[in-house]
Design brief:
The complex is a heterodimer of chains A (256) and B (270). Chain A is mainly α and 256 residues long. Chain A is 84% helix and 0% strand. The longest helix of chain A has 37 residues. Chain A starts with a helix and ends with a helix. In chain B, strands 6-7-8-3-9-10 form a six-stranded mixed beta sheet, with helices on both faces. Chain B starts with 10 loop residues before the first strand and ends in a 9-residue tail after the last helix. Chain B has two domains: 173 residues, P-loop containing nucleotide triphosphate hydrolases (Rossmann fold, 3-Layer(aba) Sandwich), CATH 3.40.50.300; 63 residues, no CATH class. Classes of the chains: A mainly alpha (256), B alpha/beta (270). At the A-B interface, α7, α8 and α10 of A face β6 and α2 of B.
Chain lengths: 256, 270
């Protein structure tokens, strides 16, 4: 079976789910007859989506949001992976880092928004900072657990096959063994970052999907709010799928 | 076989004992002072009741554990931690799942700095030796348990260690595959004459393969019996001397079991 056919087949449940959601939505609208200002019918939101596409707004808002998430995610990757490797590998680093991580972890990224605005103002960096917080922990925790859960027998095998230094052992055994778990962290964190985008953009943004939604609320255009939500959902699914495909590809190259 | 092999080395275990100190528990006396000399090229099987310290002894020789007292030598070099000169075959295969079978077999050569083309052709020779030609590009996940252990054997022999340690290498395999791999191992050992130390539960396996069998006591382990087996290879389980030896080693083991549990175990061939 070709990769394209497989991707299409994997997409079928999503299409079915989407159709189901639209059907329920339409049903609720038919039964309760709400004001379109509160809950517009799917058809109206679809029209708005077409509209947003043709004016180019959809592209502008999406690319701003994606750009912010990507920048924040990259930053988190660069910082969280080395930290996670250290924490997973060295008990000393673990003793020091683990409590710090556990104190910060339960604090929602949203709680950082006020400080982000105070520290960074209303520009890009504040938004990137909030998303960075949201992406940081999944990467860190998966990296730590990836390193820690390396089968000790593989480490012994590495040692008797000639990994003499800790660095060689790390490079040839621990890192590749931890890689699948680290990849999961990379994928999940992009998702959590994407979920945090709205909160990050609700305040003082004039572009981005969060802005589109906040703005829709202010001008009482719930069709635009819903259109924004649909775009976030669809892009979220697509990004996740892209990560899965990419992950498989990297692994296959690495593993063969 | 064209690959130049390193000379087999002997092993000397000098009054080595091992105590483990588990957290919040009494120390465990795993190994009483053991003295042992293994001649280069010998195939020694260590057999004993579960938990008698035979794996501990192997791990000490491998360098995974440090002795509480005493010292060990591989050839005339003291053992200080794991070294590629003392290879190991694990019961759980321990193949690297992210590498192909060939890359697994060539792993030791890669770390020794052997260049790619040379190590690939060496690895291919050893894959052929264990009957895995055609699986070099597969990932370990695609292999059956028996094939994985053959790959692990190829990896241990390809690395060109002077000593190969085996910790119940066939324990996880079905009887048929085990028998087949015992023959393979015997053939490879006869061809390469590495020093092999094999830890096993099976008296038959020890008698098929080893030219010397050590029977250990219950924990804390000591060597209870040291038997040179000079039957010609390949050995026949129906042969009278084979069966007598099997009987008497089993009796020794049952004596240990009884001492440990205070029960009368019914003698049963493995």
């Amino acid at each position: 079976m070709g990769a394209v056919t497989r991707s299409l087949q994997n997409g079928i449940p999503y299409l079915v789910a989407a159709a189901g959601i639209v059907a329920v939505w339409q049903g609720v609208v038919l039964i309760t007859q709400p004001s379109p200002m509160l809950l517009p019918p799917p058809s109206l939101v679809f029209e708005t989506l077409v509209d947003l596409t043709s004016t180019g707004e959809l592209f502008v808002h999406s690319s701003y949001s994606l750009g912010r998430v990507f920048a924040a995610w990259l930053l988190a990757v660069v910082i969280a992976i080395p930290l996670g490797l250290a924490q997973g590998y060295s008990p000393a680093a673990e003793r020091f880092l683990d409590p710090v991580v556990e104190i910060f972890r339960p604090i929602s990224p949203l709680a950082w928004i006020p400080l982000a605005i105070l520290w960074f103002g209303i520009g890009e960096s504040g938004k990137v900072f909030v998303i960075f917080i949201a992406t940081f922990f999944p990467i860190l925790l998966n990296t730590v657990s990836g390193v820690k859960s390396v089968d000790p027998i593989l480490i012994r095998a590495g040692q008797v096959l000639g990994c003499k230094s800790k660095f060689q052992l790390f490079r040839h055994v621990i890192l590749p063994a931890a890689m699948p778990t680290i990849m999961v962290g990379l994928r999940i964190s992009f998702g959590t970052g994407w979920a945090a985008i709205i909160a990050a953009e609700l305040v003082a943004a004039n572009r981005g999907l969060g802005f589109l939604i906040a703005d829709g609320m202010e001008i009482l255009r719930s069709d635009r709010v819903l259109a924004g939500m649909v775009i976030i959902g669809v892009l979220g699914v697509l990004i996740d799928a892209a990560f899965r495909v990419l992950g498989r590809k990297i692994r296959r190259e690495e593993y063969s | 076989m064209t690959a130049a092999s390193k000379k087999a080395l002997g092993i000397r275990v000098d009054h080595v004992s091992k105590l483990f100190y588990p957290k919040d528990q009494e120390p465990v006396d795993a190994l009483r002072p053991v003295d042992l000399t293994v001649a280069p090229g010998d195939f020694v099987a260590i057999i004993g009741p579960s938990g008698c310290g035979k794996s501990t002894l192997l791990n000490l020789i491998a360098g995974f554990e440090t002795p509480t007292a005493g010292s060990m030598y591989a050839g005339d070099k003291p053992v200080k931690g794991p070294d590629p000169d003392r290879g190991m075959v694990f019961q759980q295969y321990a193949l690297f799942p992210w590498l192909t079978v060939r890359e697994n077999v060539a792993f030791g050569l890669k770390l020794a700095g052997v260049e790619q083309t040379v190590r690939d052709s060496r690895a291919n020779q050893y894959l052929e030796l264990v009957g895995l030609q055609g699986f070099g590009d597969s990932l370990p996940v695609a292999l059956s348990g028996g094939m994985k252990q053959r790959a692990a054997l190829a990896r241990a022999f390809c690395t060109d260690s002077s000593i190969i340690l085996m910790d119940e290498p066939f324990g996880a395999l079905d009887a048929l595959t085990r028998g087949f791999l015992q023959h393979e191992l015997l053939r490879i050992w006869q061809e390469h004459r590495k020093t092999v130390v094999l830890v096993t539960h099976s008296v038959q396996e020890a008698l098929f393969l080893a030219n010397r069998i050590l029977v250990m006591t219950n924990r804390p382990g000591r060597i209870k019996r040291d038997e040179v087996i000079d039957l010609p290879y390949p050995r026949d389980a129906m042969d009278e001397t084979f069966r007598k030896l099997e009987r008497s080693i089993l009796d020794d083991l049952h004596e240990e079991l009884q001492a440990a549990h205070g029960v009368t175990a019914t003698a049963q061939a493995d």
